[in-house]
Amino acid sequence: MARMGCKPLGVLLLTLAVVGQGQTSPAPADTAQATIQAVVPLPKVEPIVSMRAKPAADSTAPQRKRSYHFSITSADWTDTGVTVAGGETADFTASGSYSFTDGRSFGPDGLDRGWKDLLRVFPLNSAKVGEVVGRVSDVGASVPFAVGSKNTVTFPTSGHLFLRVNTSSDLTATGSFKVQVAFGDTSKASAKVVLPAEAAPVSTIVSPETFTDIPRRVSDQDQRDGDMVNYALLGTQAQVLAAFKAAGWVVVDKTVQDAVLHGLLSTLQHDAYTEMPMSTLYLFGRPQDLSFARGDPLKVAAERHHLRVWQTDKAVGGLPLWVGSCTHDIGFEKDQRNGGVTHKIDPKIDGERDYLLQSFDATGGFDSAAYVTPADPLTTAKTATGGSFYSDGRILVMELRAAPAN
């Protein structure tokens, strides 16, 4: 048992050597991208329509049935076809049984993880193996929630309700779960979809000038320019921490020593380890104030969504302004500074900026959002380790909710 339990920790120890080497990216942008970037975008502010507000117009809440019954017979996400509204609550009740080909049988509450399950990736790593889980919308950044045999869920956002069994791709399961979803007073739900009217949209309080004195790049310890500053948040530190937690992001371990201890404890407790530390980068002459990541166990060493956050000395609309850089690790490559090994980032960094937006939107993490194109937008550059990346130059700005969804 001990030998098997060491496998996840072994993966951790083998990959920690590349942590702290900085970040880089793959080959330069293609010709089409280079042509697009030859035109410098004009400064502007573009409001973002939250997907939480979109279902309000076509919501069937007043005509919707009070209760639905669904059958789950597949390992894939099942679209129930039912539109839920952000803020409304539903009671879930599930029954039935499933069996794995390895001989394990289970009900809607699933099974406790075994040692081998630490080497698997599940839709919801915090849930039990085989447990009934759900999510709202099919956006990749959506955070699933546990259902089990009985649970009451308050939906953080609006969209279609999806259900599935919490299994990994290498586990074959057969069986059927019957899931009943009972809604409360649906006439009150649609009112909760509308974003707060008392707060001015962030698009009216930010401008290209907001970022005039904000550096466009972060740097490494030798002051070599690195990743792009591509998002900003308005809110207190408590709001920042709560919003990231609700959206499925974890605070990463600060040191390799912390990671080894955390990884060992997680392994012994049959928990997934996803808090792999990241390198220290600098903005305003200091290291990042906060670091977050989203990634799957085992893959997290090479592939993960990750970002850094710095609090500025500015306030916008009476709220502290935070800025940061988010990139998507997609593997490893040679560090052109020293010939070592470092992470490779996806050069299309706007995809990671929009993934951050989707993850917050899927959990109701912000009141309003906008894209801001500053007067001197960054559209293409090289990282501190020599790789190239490109962007449309826009900075995502989100005004965080006073009480983000849990």
Layout of strands and helices, then pairs:
Layout: H1 2-15, E1 23-24, H2 31-37, E2 44-48, H3 55-58, E3 67-72, E4 78-84, E5 89-100, E6 105-106, E7 132-136, E8 145-146, E9 150-154, E10 159-165, E11 173-183, E12 217-219, E13 225-228, E14 231-234, H4 237-246, E15 250-251, H5 256-268, E16 282-283, E17 286-287, E18 290-294, E19 303-316, E20 319-334, E21 341-345, H6 350-361, E22 366-373, E23 380-382, E24 388-390, E25 395-400
Parallel strand pairs: 1-21, 14-25
Antiparallel strand pairs: 2-22, 3-11, 4-10, 5-6, 5-9, 5-11, 7-8, 7-10, 12-13, 14-20, 15-18, 16-17, 18-19, 19-20, 20-21, 22-25, 23-24
Description:
- This protein is an alpha+beta fold.
- It has two domains: 2-50 and 195-400, no CATH class; 55-192, Galactose-binding lectin (Jelly Rolls), CATH 2.60.120.
- The protein is 15% helix and 35% strand.
- The strands form six sheets. Strands 1, 2, 14, 15, 18, 19, 20, 21, 22 and 25 form a ten-stranded mixed beta sheet that branches.
- The relative contact order is 0.21.
- The model is unreliable at 1-32, 55-62, 187-197, 255-270 and 297-302 (pLDDT under 50).
Short précis:
With 406 residues, this protein is of the alpha+beta class. The chain has six helices and 25 strands. It starts with a helix and ends in a 6-residue tail after the last strand.
Q: How many domains comprise the coordinates?
A: 2
Overall outline: globular
Q: Characterize the biggest β-sheet.
A: 10 strands, mixed
Helicity range: 10-25%
Structural class: alpha+beta
Distance between the termini: 36 Å
What gyration radius follows from the Cα positions, in whole Å?
22 Å
Mean pLDDT: 79
Tally of contiguous helical segments:
6
Q: Stretches where pLDDT falls below 50 for ≥5 residues?
A: 1-32, 55-62, 187-197, 255-270, 297-302
